[in-house]
C-alpha cells in the first residue's frame, strides 16, 4: 500500500496484480516511508505482509490508515482470477518453498496447487502469511458489501493506469509489467541450475534473487514462463478458481467493461 498525504491518494496493492510495476515509482511520494512494503510482526495479527492488508483488517487494526483511505482518493489494479492464481502459485513456490523458476515443473506446480486448494478450503477468514497471495481481490476493494476503493483498473488497461497516476501525482510509471514469471532460456543449462537451486536459495536473500533475475531477464537470459496445464477445462483447479473467486471474476469483468 502507498499513501501520499501530499496528493491525498492511496494505492491498494492487491497481490499478483502488477503491484510492483505501480508501487516502485510511487515510493518517492509514500508518506509511510515504506511501512506497508514489508513482512513483519503485528501485535494482534501475528506475522503478516504489510503490503497486502485486506480492508477488514485495516479497518480494525490500522485506524489512521483506514481514515485516510476513506478520506483520500484511492485506486487498485485487478486481474483475471485464473491468471492471478497461476502467478500466485509461482510466487509461493519461489518465495516460501525456496525453488528457482527453472525447478518448477508442471507436475510440481499441480501437486502444490492441490495443497493450496486444500489449505484455502480449510482456512478461517484470515489467510496466513504463506497464503497471502491467494486472498480474494474483493477483500481489498469492498467491506461489508460497500465499495471502499474508488477506482478499479484491470491489469489489461495499463495505459489508463499510467495516465491516472500521472494526472493524480505527476509520477511517470512504465507500462511494462515487472516481476513476471520467467524461466531460463537455454535448456541445456537447466540441469545445472536445478542442482544449484537449494544452496543458492539458502545463501541469497529472496529480494536479492529477484533483483538478479530482473537483470538477467533484461539481458535476454530469461524468458516468460509457459502457462501450466493445471487450469485445463473441467479440471479440479479450474473448478475451484471459478467458485472460490467468483466475485473477483465479476469485478474484473466489470472493470474491463468500464
From TrEMBL:
Query: Organism, per UniProt?
Result: Sphingobium fluviale
What protein does this entry describe? Answer: Sulfotransferase family protein
Write out the transmembrane intervals: none
Mind telling me which GO cellular component terms the entry cites?
Answer: membrane
Output the Gene Ontology terms for molecular function. sulfotransferase activity
Which domain of life does this protein belong to? Bacteria
The leader peptide range reads none
A Pfam family: Sulfotransfer_2
Which InterPro entries does UniProt cross-reference here? P-loop_NTPase, Sulfotransferase
